[in-house]
Amino acid sequence: MSDTQKIYxxxxxxxxxxxxxxxxxxxxxxxxxxxxxxxxxxxxLPLPVDxxxxxxxxxxxxxxxxxxxxxxxxxxxxxxPVIIAYSPYGKSQGSSAFARSVFDLVGLDNGIVxxxxxxxxxxxxxxxxxxxxxxxxxxxxISDSQGDSVLWDRQEGRDAYDLIEWLGVQxxxxxxxxxxxxxxxxxxxxxxxxxxxxxxxxINPWEGMSDTYRDLVMRGGMPDTGFARTLRDFSFAGLxxxxxxxxxxxxxxxxxxxxxxxxxxxxxxxxxxxxxxxxTNTLHTQGTFRAWRRISSADKWLRIHDSMEWPDxxxxxxxxDLRSFFDHVLKGVDNGWDRTPRVRYSLLDxxxxxxxxxxxxxxxxxxxxxxxxxxxxxxxxxxxxxPADGAKARYVVGSNPDFASFLLRFDRKTVLAGYPKAHxxxxxxxxxxxxxxxxxxxxxxxxxxxxxxxxPRRDAGLHDATEHGGSILRYRGSDGRLRxxxxxxxxxxxxxxxxxxxxDRTEKLAPGQIVDVQVDLLPVGLVFHPGxxxxxxxxxxxxxxxxxxxxxPYTSPNTGAHLVHTGGQRASYLQLPLHQIRD
Length: 583
Prior knowledge:
Number of strands: 28
Number of domains: 2
CATH architecture of the largest domain: 3-Layer(aba) Sandwich
Low-confidence stretches: none
Radius of gyration: 24 Å
Number of helices: 12
Largest sheet: 11 strands, mixed
């Protein structure tokens, strides 16, 4: 069983004075009334209505483990639906110094929330005023809850099932339970919904991973564990043990039962779902789109925004949009939500002129044609026809330059909307393996690379923080990566647009061996105007750096030289989702 493959390490309790300790983090069971006008602390929004807080309520899971939750609900006798913010972040962490610093980092005013919200979760101040309750749980092994904590797996789904069913029969609840939140709070919803708890009426995953191996610890088969280490070390405070995801990745570098258990049963998800995604989040984009594609919900909506998850989630307009969904599904309000387009996507131009909320029936939208652009190592260009003669582009790992670029200039307006992928013929010199990093980059007509911040902050400090990393905060293009020895595809799950690698076997390269690999790149919505260029980069090192500032960078074990073969019998190409080409 996968549980026998888990590795645990001691947790540390959350104590007063810790940067993640909130105003209400102390263990104080009981019910209290928070009066309208109450301000939790000076930076935060005063409460607009009276709120009943049931603090540190014990919830017993099916195996007898006792966990604790905080429930915020409107004062009065009306039965209301409840929204869960499900994560290992302390249930009162929204008012902590850490949470305030995150808002500062991205340029958000802490005064837009009350501090009662869980980090990355819905704010009780707003939702209670709209006739909803909010449940902030401390999961198994977190804070004062019993047991050992785990990181994104089906155990969390089973625990969430038990909490959902407990909430659904409380005397203040109308029997309908939903989930909402970003990042971890989004990823946990896939696992919960796959268990099909009867009282779960809706989910709202707002950018979140959906495969712990492929999205978190081993994207492309590479042990780039900087964020996973941060998550493990700082987000699982408790009295027992916590799962050591880093040790597990080191001991089990290939997909096995442990990692399979950390993939939700997507097809078992049938509950109404409002999914929010972006093209720009190197941590969450791939997983969000994957889950949206594969869930079975007959009623599912996708909105692809043009910024970063935190500014988008707490934006007033988007919050009202979410309320329309919840009002319709959880309260039965006939507000026209059912006529909302099933897909609303954005198009970026990286010059401040994004288009948003473009209606479609699916994504990629109708009319997209997956079009091959062939690499030419002689001219370092991309073209519609494969070169007749073979050639090689070569770079030496660790040299300057240590990548090979190919350019495509557009003579008319061109829109990309969908899933890019690369099919490359590659060879290693002086090594039996290759870590490949790919990037589709937009250049202006003069050849200058274009990038765009995804958050409101624009000052010199953010320029510094994103100069060699912080890819979540500054978008530079659609990237992909693959360790070549893990190139084996799952034929059943791969599509023409999105290759799916099994990551369950190692196939090292022999000297002189040339192999073809398929690499998926993050979904894209991008506009090119006449004269602007697309640059496709192949490299042996990470081209975007770390996901967030301050994280340790990934250093590839690459050595020797890499060769990319083009033309002739080895016609490497970049496949782009051309939505429309027009003057």
